[in-house]
C-alpha cells in the first residue's frame, strides 16, 4: 500500500484491529480470516463530490463532500455525517472501518459507512448552514437510500441539519423514505435517539462494574470524569447522575470544566451547557454566569484527565485520540477502575497499551478498558431501531426503545466478554480483554457474512 498517501487515522484504526486479531487465537482457529482482513480493510466504495453553495453576501463557496461506503455484508451502509474543517478521507475511512464492527456488535442488520464535508459551521449563519446542508444532500442523494445507505448525524450535524437534508432528499427524489436517522420525532424519528449513545455508554459500563464487583457495586457513589459537552457527554452525564454517580468534569475544544463542590456537575448545569451548545457558544460562557461560576474551575486549553483528582470511571466522549499514554498513567494513579469510550477511538494506542498492561499486571485491582466500537454502540443501535420503525411505519414509546437499548448493550457486553474468554488467554483473577473481545466478535461476524456472500473464499 506504499503507493497510497499516508492516512494516519485509518492506519491507526487498522493496526489496532489487526494487532488484536494477530495476538489472539483467531487466526490459528480460522487461518482463512487473514484473507478476510485484507478484503475488509478496503472500502467497497468511496464517493467524493463538489458542494457549491451561496453565502449571505451572495458569494459562491465550495467544499468537498464525502461518503465512504465501507461494507454492506450485514445490511445497508450505516454511519454518521460530519461537518467539520478537519474532515478528510483518512478520518472518514477510520470512522467507517470502526463503524462496520460496531454495527456488527449491535446484532442489527446494518453495514458500515461514514461521510461528511470539510465545511465549518462555526461562524456561519443559520441560513448559510441551511444552504450548505441542502447543497450537500443534492450531491449525496443519488448514492443513498433506505435499502442502500442510511446516514445519521455526527459532529456538526444536529437534528436541525438532518431535517434540512431530509427535506432536500424528499424534494430531489420525490419520495419519503427512511434515508436518514436522527429525524424529528413527529416525522419518522425514534424516541431516545438523541440520548442513545450516552445512555448506552453508561449501560455498558454498568455491566462492567457489576461483573468486576461480583454484582456488589453500581454507579452509585462513583466519581465519573467525562470529556466533551455534546450529546454523548450530556446524556452520559445525566444517566450517570440518575444512577447515583457524581460527575466531576466536562470539556470542549477550548478547555476543561472541573467541578469544585461535592455535588459535582448537576443536571441543571448540563441543561445550561446544552443550551450553550445549541447557540454554538463555548464553555467559557459559564465563567460569566453568576449562578455557576463559583461551582467549577475552567482550565483553558486542557483536557480533564489530569485535573480531576480521585476518579473511578472515565468516559472520553469528545473526539478521537483524546487520552494520551501519559494521561492514562495519571488516571490509573488517580484510582480509575473503568474507562469506556463514548467517542470513536478516544484513546491513543499508547493509552490502550497502558490500560491493557495494567489489566494484566494488577488483575482484579486493575483498570478495565472498553473500546468505542462496543461501548458507544448505543447510538447506532437506536438508529437501527429507527430504521425498523420507519420500515414498519410504526412508532415505539420511549420505554420500549430504552428497554431494547438496554438489551442490546447487555448482549454487546456479554458478546465481548465471551469472545475474549474464547480467543485470548486470561490469567487467574484477570479481567478479560474487552478491546480484544469487541474487535474479534465484530470482525468475525462481518468476515463470515462476506464469505457467505462470496466477497472472499
Automatic annotation (TrEMBL):
<keyword id="KW-0547">Nucleotide-binding</keyword>
<dbReference type="GO" id="GO:0006537">
    <property type="term" value="P:glutamate biosynthetic process"/>
</dbReference>
<dbReference type="InterPro" id="IPR014362">
    <property type="entry name" value="Glu_DH"/>
</dbReference>
<dbReference type="Pfam" id="PF02812">
    <property type="entry name" value="ELFV_dehydrog_N"/>
</dbReference>
<keyword id="KW-0520">NAD</keyword>
<keyword id="KW-0560">Oxidoreductase</keyword>
<feature type="binding site">
    <location>
        <position position="383"/>
    </location>
    <ligand>
        <name>substrate</name>
    </ligand>
</feature>
<dbReference type="InterPro" id="IPR006097">
    <property type="entry name" value="Glu/Leu/Phe/Val/Trp_DH_dimer"/>
</dbReference>
<dbReference type="InterPro" id="IPR006096">
    <property type="entry name" value="Glu/Leu/Phe/Val/Trp_DH_C"/>
</dbReference>
<dbReference type="GO" id="GO:0005829">
    <property type="term" value="C:cytosol"/>
</dbReference>
<comment type="similarity">
    <text>Belongs to the Glu/Leu/Phe/Val dehydrogenases family.</text>
</comment>
<dbReference type="GO" id="GO:0000166">
    <property type="term" value="F:nucleotide binding"/>
</dbReference>
<feature type="binding site">
    <location>
        <position position="99"/>
    </location>
    <ligand>
        <name>substrate</name>
    </ligand>
</feature>
<dbReference type="InterPro" id="IPR050724">
    <property type="entry name" value="Glu_Leu_Phe_Val_DH"/>
</dbReference>
<dbReference type="InterPro" id="IPR046346">
    <property type="entry name" value="Aminoacid_DH-like_N_sf"/>
</dbReference>
<keyword id="KW-0521">NADP</keyword>
<dbReference type="InterPro" id="IPR006095">
    <property type="entry name" value="Glu/Leu/Phe/Val/Trp_DH"/>
</dbReference>
<protein>
    <recommendedName>
        <fullName>Glutamate dehydrogenase</fullName>
    </recommendedName>
</protein>
<feature type="binding site">
    <location>
        <position position="102"/>
    </location>
    <ligand>
        <name>substrate</name>
    </ligand>
</feature>
<dbReference type="InterPro" id="IPR036291">
    <property type="entry name" value="NAD(P)-bd_dom_sf"/>
</dbReference>
<dbReference type="InterPro" id="IPR033922">
    <property type="entry name" value="NAD_bind_Glu_DH"/>
</dbReference>
<dbReference type="Pfam" id="PF00208">
    <property type="entry name" value="ELFV_dehydrog"/>
</dbReference>
<feature type="binding site">
    <location>
        <position position="153"/>
    </location>
    <ligand>
        <name>substrate</name>
    </ligand>
</feature>
<dbReference type="GO" id="GO:0004354">
    <property type="term" value="F:glutamate dehydrogenase (NADP+) activity"/>
</dbReference>
<feature type="binding site">
    <location>
        <position position="197"/>
    </location>
    <ligand>
        <name>NAD(+)</name>
    </ligand>
</feature>
<feature type="domain" description="Glutamate/phenylalanine/leucine/valine/L-tryptophan dehydrogenase C-terminal">
    <location>
        <begin position="190"/>
        <end position="454"/>
    </location>
</feature>
<feature type="site" description="Important for catalysis">
    <location>
        <position position="154"/>
    </location>
</feature>
<feature type="binding site">
    <location>
        <position position="78"/>
    </location>
    <ligand>
        <name>substrate</name>
    </ligand>
</feature>
<comment type="subunit">
    <text>Homohexamer.</text>
</comment>
<feature type="active site" description="Proton donor">
    <location>
        <position position="114"/>
    </location>
</feature>
<feature type="binding site">
    <location>
        <position position="231"/>
    </location>
    <ligand>
        <name>NAD(+)</name>
    </ligand>
</feature>
<dbReference type="InterPro" id="IPR033524">
    <property type="entry name" value="Glu/Leu/Phe/Val_DH_AS"/>
</dbReference>
Amino acid at each position: 500500500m506504499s503507493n497510497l498517501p499516508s492516512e494516519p487515522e485509518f492506519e491507526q484504526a487498522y493496526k489496532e484491529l489487526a494487532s488484536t486479531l494477530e495476538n489472539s487465537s483467531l487466526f490459528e482457529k480460522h487461518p482463512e480470516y487473514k484473507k478476510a482482513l485484507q478484503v475488509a480493510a478496503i472500502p467497497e466504495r468511496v464517493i467524493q463530490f463538489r458542494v457549491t453553495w451561496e453565502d449571505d453576501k451572495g458569494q459562491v463557496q465550495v467544499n468537498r463532500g464525502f461518503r465512504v461506503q465501507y461494507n454492506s455484508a450485514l445490511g445497508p451502509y450505516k454511519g454518521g455525517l460530519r461537518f467539520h474543517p478537519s474532515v478528510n478521507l483518512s478520518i472518514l475511512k477510520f470512522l467507517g472501518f470502526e463503524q462496520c464492527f460496531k454495527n456488527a456488535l449491535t446484532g442489527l442488520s446494518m453495514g458500515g459507512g461514514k461521510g461528511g464535508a470539510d465545511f465549518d459551521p462555526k461562524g456561519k449563519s443559520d441560513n448559510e448552514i441551511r444552504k450548505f446542508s441542502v447543497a450537500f444532500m443534492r450531491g449525496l442523494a443519488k448514492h443513498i437510500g433506505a435499502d442502500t445507505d442510511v446516514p445519521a448525524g455526527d459532529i456538526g450535524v444536529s437534528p436541525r441539519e438532518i431535517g434540512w437534508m431530509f427535506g432536500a432528499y424528499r424534494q430531489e427524489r420525490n419520495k419519503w423514505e427512511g434515508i436518514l436517522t436522527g429525524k424529528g420525532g413527529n416525522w419518522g424519528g425514534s424516541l431516545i435517539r438523541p440520548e442513545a449513545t450516552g445512555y448506552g455508554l453508561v449501560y455498558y459500563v454498568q455491566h462492567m462494574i457489576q461483573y468486576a464487583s461480583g454484582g456488589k457495586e453500581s454507579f452509585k457513589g462513583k466519581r465519573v470524569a467525562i470529556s466533551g459537552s455534546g450529546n454523548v457527554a450530556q446524556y452520559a452525564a445525566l444517566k450517570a447522575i440518575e444512577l447515583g454517580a457524581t460527575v466531576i468534569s466536562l470539556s470542549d475544544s477550548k478547555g476543561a470544566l472541573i467541578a469544585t463542590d461535592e455535588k459535582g456537575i448537576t443536571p441543571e448545569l448540563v441543561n445550561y451547557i446544552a443550551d450553550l451548545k445549541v447557540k454554538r457558544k463555548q464553555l467559557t460562557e459559564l465563567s460569566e454566569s453568576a449562578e455557576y461560576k463559583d461551582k467549577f474551575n475552567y482550565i483553558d486549553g486542557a483536557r480533564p484527565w489530569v485535573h480531576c483528582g480521585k476518579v473511578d470511571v472515565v468516559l472520553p466522549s469528545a473526539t478521537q485520540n483524546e487520552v494520551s499514554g501519559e494521561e492514562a498513567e495519571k488516571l490509573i494513579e488517580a484510582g480509575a477502575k473503568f474507562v469506556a469510550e463514548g467517542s470513536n477511538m478516544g484513546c491513543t494506542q499508547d493509552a490502550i497499551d497502558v490500560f491493557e498492561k495494567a489489566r494484566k499486571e494488577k488483575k482484579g485491582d486493575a483498570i478495565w478498558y472498553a473500546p468505542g466500537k462496543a461501548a458507544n454502540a448505543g447510538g447506532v443501535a437506536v438508529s437501527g431501531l429507527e430504521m425498523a420503525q420507519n420500515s414498519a411505519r410504526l412508532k415505539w414509546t420511549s420505554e420500549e426503545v430504552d428497554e431494547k437499548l438496554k438489551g442490546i448493550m447487555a448482549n454487546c457486553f456479554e458478546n465481548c466478554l465471551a469472545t475474549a474468554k474464547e480467543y485470548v488467554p486470561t490469567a487467574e483473577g484477570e479481567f478479560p480483554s474487552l478491546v480484544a473481545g469487541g474487535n474479534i466478535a465484530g470482525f468475525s461476524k462481518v468476515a463470515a457474512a462476506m464469505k457467505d456472500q462470496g466477497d472472499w473464499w
